[in-house]
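Bumping with the actual sequence this time:
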Amino acid sequence: VWQRLRHRPTAMAGLAAAALIVSAALFAPLLAVHDPLTMPDPVGLRAAAPSATHWLGTDIFSRDLLSRLLFGARVSLAVGVASAVLAALIGSAVGFVAGLGRPVVDAMLMRGVDVLLALPRVFLLLAVFALWEGVPLGIVILLIAGTGWFGTSRLVRAQVRQLRDADWARATLALGGRRARLARQLLPHVAATIIVSATLDIGSVILLEAGLSFLGLGLRPPTPTWGNMILEGRTLLFSAPWIAIAPGLALTLTVIAFN
């Protein structure tokens, strides 16, 4: 896999960027010179330009922008990775049960997935977050994952149904093998689909969380997220553009890198 990967410049560029972003998030407490929540001088340092003390400047509350950017990366990546992995696990489980189950089970599960796909995900999340004050990070991850596994389940189900008709799969069942054993044998063949689906979901989930934070939902200030950082800087795009541009560029780079 590495030999194939390293001969693809775009893949290596994405891998390097993703590794840099993940490293910055993991070592945020060591890299951040200032406390992301401290407001040293709300008047004198309000929306201060980048300087030797504050490399990316400060926000409207005089908080160091670089420190908030680093800690915001932890939130965005935690939501993106955890939600995508959890959604992939749920979708894969449903896809395997539907693909290997009896026709009535398959029909019930897939019709249920069809109904859930018909529901607008963003509006559903907006309604929940609007009615729930101060949503914890764990609940945000569960809600996003719980509304994002439908597509993966259909992909896995389609591939499982195709593979279960192979001669070796039929032989496994004919020799008395259980469906659980057949599922374990099919998993390596379906793993690539699951991994690609989860990886693409990371970027979309990070964008979704940022959009919810930009609308003032999800995780609330003063917890730094890239979405609420852009929200705070939207009114100062001409006088202090660095407040919104820095998290906007970080968000764009992260999504492109994972995609």
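The tokens above came from a reply further down the thread. Residues 65-100 form the longest helix (36 residues).
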